[in-house]
Write a structure and sequence with these properties.
single chain; alpha/beta; Alpha-D-Glucose-1,6-Bisphosphate, Chain A, domain 3; 3 domains; binds alpha-D-glucose-1-phosphate-6-vanadate; binds cobalt (II) ion; metal-binding; A-D-PHexomutase_C_sf; magnesium; magnesium ion binding
């Protein structure tokens, strides 16, 4: 039986950089998840009888919301849902399943690298038929609908069994529970030279992959250990836990410091990697070298032709604006297009669909390609392994040679988390007002060449996205970028991105190399004055 349930709108269901993210108790309010899911369906048209993919990263509240989503999909007229077994699908695996089975779209339940648990974060994101995050046109329509919604539709189908692989009927709709790993592992096998990587492990290559008790555990075990023959124990913390073992599933130098320390130690493995809550981010650490995500994007782009899936070369490279320009130098050398987009994977979809870009990346540890329409943590790790297997050099040698060829973009991000929202907004609006007066002035001994608030015009559909981050460019190619996070769930997070290019001085300490730019940013924006903080909460 299908019920129409009266509801009242919530005013705070605006999707951010990557879907709607809130604390679990917010999602547990009466009809909160139902309102949002119905708003998604109401913002779409033409899905009657079509397939919807549903899966999440296994965090606290995942199963409850999946049950609601399945029952609501049936009531709203979808013909079929494909759900990952146990409610599990990594974000890139969900993207792949949407594309492979020509689904109308998908609901991905995740708050990515944010912590999980009864008082931590939850999230819902809608992806369109190309497998990628819904573009702003759709997220705007979802938000508009959420402010006026008065009822939602749900089928009384009871609790469906998500733990057995198989197909059944529920509420007049087909439910197919699938192995979350199989299709994804097959896709990886089609892109990379598994024989070469197997031979690498046979030669004694040692790797540490930390799944951080998040969604990539089962994927990493199957691909690295079962299919590629890496020794048991190569993939660690592989059981997805609803609270990620009480840690932030954020593969950065703070939350994966244990891996960093191991990789810098005396008996370090050859290669270290980690992924985040929903499996779309990657951390890459070679023995004795942390590879910044911006450098990783550049190195992968320069060497991608060594993997079978990219042997024909790249059509173009895209990166988010705050990501360093290291990849731009590779694109220039390869003679291919380079695109600079706002933060968030949704801006890459059109470029990938149009065949303008093959590889994309963000400084926040996201890298991916046109194989899906999401960033993909294990994909990046496997491309690295493919390159290491073919070049037979260490990660450190590969990165060092890359810098010798292209120069080095020293890069760091400083995050000020949970600062007062009003103070953060004041900082940004005051800085915005100052922008026109900055060019030509000198700050902390550095001369400002240009300053603006980044605006993007999508070259495919012409849509314009304004106010995407404030850039201050200095003489010599250095720059600082300031923007507010669109994924946080408490207060505001201010991000300061700092970049300096050096053609030949390749072995400076990163934070020392960037110190004068950090001083300049504080002088220009008054970060300490506005936030009351004397140092960032996280430096990556
Ligand atoms: C952050 C990152 C951005 C990334 C987004 C989603 O957004 O900066 O690059 O695309 O998270 O990643 P923001 O607005 O907080 O800066 V994930 O792995 O959280 O889905
Ligand atoms: Co993520």
């Amino acid at each position: 039986m299908i019920r129409t349930v009266e509801t009242t709108p919530y005013s705070d269901q605006k999707p951010g950089t990557s879907g709607l993210r809130k604390k679990v108790p917010v999602f547990q309010q009466a009809n909160y998840a139902e309102n949002f899911i119905q708003s998604v369906f109401d913002a779409l048209a033409g899905f009657s009888g079509q397939t919807l993919v549903i899966g999440g990263d296994g965090r606290y509240y995942n199963r409850e919301v999946i049950q609601k989503a399945v029952a609501m999909a049936a009531a709203n007229g979808f013909g079929k849902v494909i759900v990952g077994q146990g409610g599990i699908l990594s974000t890139p695996a969900a993207s792949n399943i949407i594309r492979k089975y020509k689904a109308f779209g998908g609901l991905i339940l995740s708050a990515s690298h944010n912590p999980g648990g009864p008082n931590e974060d939850f999230g819902i994101k809608y992806n369109i038929g190309n497998g990628g995050p819904a573009p702003e046109k759709i997220t705007d329509a979802i938000f508009a609908r959420s402010k006026t919604i008065s009822s939602y539709r749900i089928a009384d189908i009871g609790e469906v069994d998500l733990d057995q692989i198989g197909t059944f009927e529920a509420g007049g709709m087909t439910v197919e529970v699938v192995d979350p790993v199989k299709d994804y592992a097959e896709l990886m096998e089609s892109l990379f030279d598994f024989d070469a990587i197997r031979a690498l492990f046979r030669r004694g290559f040692r790797m540490a992959f930390d799944a951080m008790h998040a969604v990539t555990g089962p994927y990493a075990k199957e691909i690295l250990e079962n299919r590629l023959g890496a020794p048991a124990g190569t993939a660690r913390k592989c059981v997805p836990l609803p609270d990620f073992g009480g840690h932030h599933p954020d593969p950065n130098l703070v939350h994966a410091k244990h891996l960093y320390d191991e990789m810098m130690g005396a008996d370090a493995p050859d290669f270290g990697a980690a992924s985040d809550g929903d499996g779309d981010r990657n951390l890459i650490i070679g023995r004795g070298i942390f590879v910044t995500p911006s450098d990783s994007l550049a190195v992968l782009a320069a060497n991608a032709h060594l993997a079978p899936g990219y042997k024909g070369g790249l059509k173009g490279i895209a990166r988010s604006m705050p990501t360093s320009a290291a990849a731009d130098r590779v694109a220039e050398k390869l003679g291919i297009g380079m695109y600079e987009t706002p933060t968030g994977w949704k801006f890459f979809g059109n470029l990938l669909d149009a065949g303008m870009a093959t590889i994309c990346g963000e400084e926040s540890a996201g890298t991916g390609s046109d194989h899906v329409r999401e960033k993909d943590g294990l994909w990046a790790v496997l491309l690295w392994l493919n390159i290491l297997a073919v070049r037979k050099e260490s990660a450190k040698e590969i990165v060092t040679k890359h810098w010798q060829t292209f120069g080095r973009n020293y890069y760091s991000r400083h995050d000020y988390e949970e600062v007062d929202s009003d103070a953060a907004n004041r900082l940004v609006s005051q800085l915005r007002e100052r922008l026109p007066s900055l060019p030509g002035t000198e700050v902390a001994g550095l001369r400002i060449e240009n300053a603006d608030d980044f605006s993007y015009r999508d070259p495919v559909d012409g849509s314009v996205s304004k106010n995407q981050g404030i850039r201050v460019m200095f003489e010599g190619g250095s720059r600082v970028v300031i923007r507010l996070s669109g994924t946080g769930t408490a207060g505001a997070t201010l991000r300061l991105y700092v970049e300096r290019y050096e053609g030949s001085r390749l072995d400076l300490d990163t934070q020392e190399a960037l110190a004068d730019l950090v001083r300049a940013a504080d002088e220009i924006a008054g970060i300490r004055r506005h936030t009351g903080r004397d140092k960032p909460s996280v430096i990556t």
